[in-house]
Write the structure tokens for this entry.
Amino acid sequence: MTNGFSLQRSEEFFRKAEKVIPGGVNSPVRAFGAVGGTPPFISSAKGSKIYDVDGNEYIDYVCSWGPLILGHAHPVVVAAIKDAAEKGSSFGAPTENEFLLAEKIVEAVPSIEKVRLVSSGTEATMSAVRLVRAATGRDKILKFTGCYHGHADSFLVQAGSGALTLGEPSSPGVPIGVTADTLVAPYNDLDSLDKLLSDNKGEVAAIIVEPVAANMGCVPPKEGFLEGLRERCDLNGTMLIFDEVITGFRVAFGGAQELYDVMPDITTLGKIIGGGLPVGAYGGKAELMDMIAPVGSVYQAGTLSGNPLATSAGLAVLNELSKPGTYEKLEQRSSDLELGLIDAIETVKVDATVQRVGSLLCLYFTDKPIKKLEDIPDSVSGRYKRYFHSMLDSGIYLAPSAYEAMFISLAHSSEDIEVTIKKSVFALEKSR
Ligand SMILES: *Cc1c(COP(=O)(O)O)cnc(C)c1O
């Protein structure tokens, strides 16, 4: 480990990348826009560690933004991918692993009877919205601020200024016509939701929610929130979509719906079920899923959907996860990290709060609990930036944004956790 700490080679690579790729990256948050500096270019990874092209070693808490619950390059997953590659990487015809992975998902996720595989989380949520619109004959959907559902037009909507009732595009290029059909409410706030539902009576096809909000750090659902959504959906003939792209197979084997015992009509999945390869999925009751082509008339397709490499990797991960004791071990490590960070905060005496659900954890630089996006003060960003760079310099790789969760994997050892806590004490000092 040579963390001296130089990123010379990464800087050179970044300059080359910027010339031919917008911002030098293929997904915006990788560019370090929120924290400044140059992103390390990663050359390899193993277990809990990633290595950059300058030879620096880091304990990784991004884990590819969620998929790598077993850690990097897990031998069983690597073997499955190699084996699949040797047999051919894509056929555009049915394969055994597709139904084996589907069976695993159906077995694990309580509300899913049938599931369709796609190639990303974005594709899963986008397709789920088409399906609920077809099933209800309604156009409007309702989402919550701070929840992320991929980059399809319908979701790139923020609450409009003044009236909560009309959404505004959160990106140029999103037609106003599309956003008119997306309603936005604050997370964990059933009163705002009730107002939106009564203003749009009989028009809302679905409510889509991250059952644990993991794209604004880590915000658990308030007691009664998910149950409240279910109740309101039933009353209004509205469908409930749980976007479990992050929480699926992470907060429990059966996802957040198992953990909180609230059943959605449709579940979207991604990340973990692809074991680090491009996958997404959406599923629900058989009758509803049979509305999709070729059985029904709701069109949705994909050249690489159910790709052999991805399904092999996904199956290998789910098989590992279904072994006894995995979630207990993950909980233990995650709880150790949480308690250690809380101790560190008390030692250093900074205003900070730790929120955690299972192996999703966020350290917010504020002393108040976060229940919705609007609770996060702007001041967190500057303090996180200092904390982040101090951690990076000392070999801990965190998400380059104050609004992201830490992902703990089964590859994180108790020594990794101890080192992380120790470095945090110093970084918390720096955060002031
Ligand atoms: C990552 C994510 C998506 C989008 O998945 P991609 O594979 O990046 O398209 C959708 N929903 C949630 C909750 C996510 O975290």
